[in-house]
Each structure stands twice: as C-alpha cells, then as structure tokens.
C-alpha cells in the first residue's frame, strides 16, 4: 500500500517523533511504500488567507496554494496521522492542513439538494491515527466524545473509499506515563502497523 504519513509536532526529541520514526520503519518493513509530510519541518502555513478563502470553491484555482499536498493525497492509498492531542483535539497546524488541503472538487464534491457530500479520493482505503493525550481515556471518550478521533476517522471517511478501514492508537495520561509505558506504546504502534496489509 502507498502510505502517506502526516506528522505534526514541533520538537524533534519528542515521543511523537519517535512514534513517527517507528511507524515509518514498520510500514516499510511490511512492504508499504511511504511518504512523509512533516508539517513543522516544511514550515506549512496553517492559516487560510482571504484570497485563498475567496477561491475556496473555485475548481483549479483552489488547488494552486496546496498543489504538492494534493498530489500526495492522490498518490496515497493509506493515510497515517501522527500527532499529539492538545486541548482534546488536533494541533492548530494539523487542523489548518485539513482546512487548506481538503478542498472542494479536489477532495470532495459539495452537497446539493437531495445529494450528500461526494467522494473524490476513492484511492484512499485506510486511515489511521497515532496520538498521545494528557487526559484519561474515560474523560476523553465519555465526557469529550473523542473530538480528534472523530474528525480524522469519521470526518474523512465519507470522502474516501467506501470500504476504507480505520485504526486508532492512543496513549492516554501521557504526562504521568513512565518510560516503560511510553516504550510499550511505541512497541504497540510498531506491531500494529507491521501487521497492516
């Protein structure tokens, strides 16, 4: 499978960076082709400016500012997001990537009366996410209703292949996690991705 890894963290020494590296290695060892989008390393601008917003619904023109990212999405058969959960959701950089890159005509068709939003990226048949969270699982799931997970795994699914599989791997309570717990999670991520077919 052609796997596009979207990575979002500002610190190269972070646990999230280690998760990215092990994820890429596990995917490659399992025979997948990989590409990496490192949002902070490339200096991706998450802010949609006024001209870009005005062209948001104009096919072709809306692709110009994010053409390289759209090419990567069209290449991919699978997406893997690796990021920390901040304030229960996606970091601003990653949310801005969704805002600017997942645009009408290129990634979905706009809904019409009696017709829902339409799929465009049917080449994508897997979406996974690896994240760390400060909150305990029960608070994030029962009280907050899993906002980041819902955005990526439920929000994107109507835009991709109807048989798209999803995977969510999370380490809760990261602030109090021991070194052994962190490394166990890295191992879990590696094992699950190595088994991905």
Tell me what you see in this structure.
With 197 residues, this protein is an alpha/beta fold. It has a single domain (2-194), classed as Rossmann fold, CATH 3.40.50.360. It is 36% helix and 19% strand. It has 7 helices and 7 strands. Strands 2-1-3-6-7 form a 5-stranded parallel beta sheet, with helices on both faces. A two-stranded antiparallel ribbon has the order 4-5. A hairpin with an 8-residue loop joins strand 4 and strand 5. The termini are close together. The model has no long low-confidence stretch (mean pLDDT 96).
Strand order of the largest sheet: 2-1-3-6-7
What is the SS-derived class? alpha/beta
**Number of helical segments with 4 or more residues:** 7
Average of per-residue pLDDT values? 96
Task: Describe the structure concisely.
This protein is α/β, with parallel strands linked by helices. It has seven helices and seven strands; from the N terminus they run E-H-E-H-H-E-H-E-E-E-H-H-E-H. It has a single domain, classed as 3-Layer(aba) Sandwich (Rossmann fold), CATH 3.40.50.
Supply the key terms.
single chain; 197 residues; alpha/beta; Rossmann fold; two-stranded antiparallel sheet; 7 strands; globular
How are the SSEs placed, and which strands pair?
Blueprint: E1 2-7, H1 15-29, E2 33-38, H2 50-54, H3 67-75, E3 78-84, H4 92-101, E4 108-109, E5 118-119, E6 126-132, H5 137-143, H6 147-154, E7 165-171, H7 179-194
Parallel strand pairs: 1-2, 1-3, 3-6, 6-7
Antiparallel strand pairs: 4-5
Helix pairs in contact: 1-7
């Amino acid at each position: 499978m052609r796997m596009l890894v979207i990575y979002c963290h500002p610190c190269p020494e972070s646990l999230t960076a280690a998760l990215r590296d092990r994820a890429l290695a596990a995917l490659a060892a399992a025979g997948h082709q990989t590409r990496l989008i490192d949002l902070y390393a490339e200096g991706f601008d998450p802010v949609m400016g006024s001209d870009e917003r005005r062209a948001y619904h104009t096919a072709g023109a809306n692709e110009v500012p994010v053409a390289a990212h759209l090419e990567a999405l069209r290449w991919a058969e699978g997406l893997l997001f690796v990021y920390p959960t901040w304030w229960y959701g996606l970091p601003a950089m990653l949310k801005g990537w969704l805002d600017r890159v997942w645009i009408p005509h290129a990634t979905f068709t706009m809904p019409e009366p009696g017709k829902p939003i339409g799929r465009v990226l049917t080449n994508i048949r897997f979406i996974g996410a690896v994240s760390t969270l400060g909150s305990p699982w029960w608070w994030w799931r029962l009280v907050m209703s899993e906002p980041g997970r819902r955005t990526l795994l439920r929000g994107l699914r109507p835009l991709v292949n109807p048989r798209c599989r999803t995977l969510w791997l999370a380490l809760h309570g990261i602030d109090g996690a021991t070194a052994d717990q962190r490394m166990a999670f890295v191992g879990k991520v590696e094992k699950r991705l190595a088994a991905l077919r």
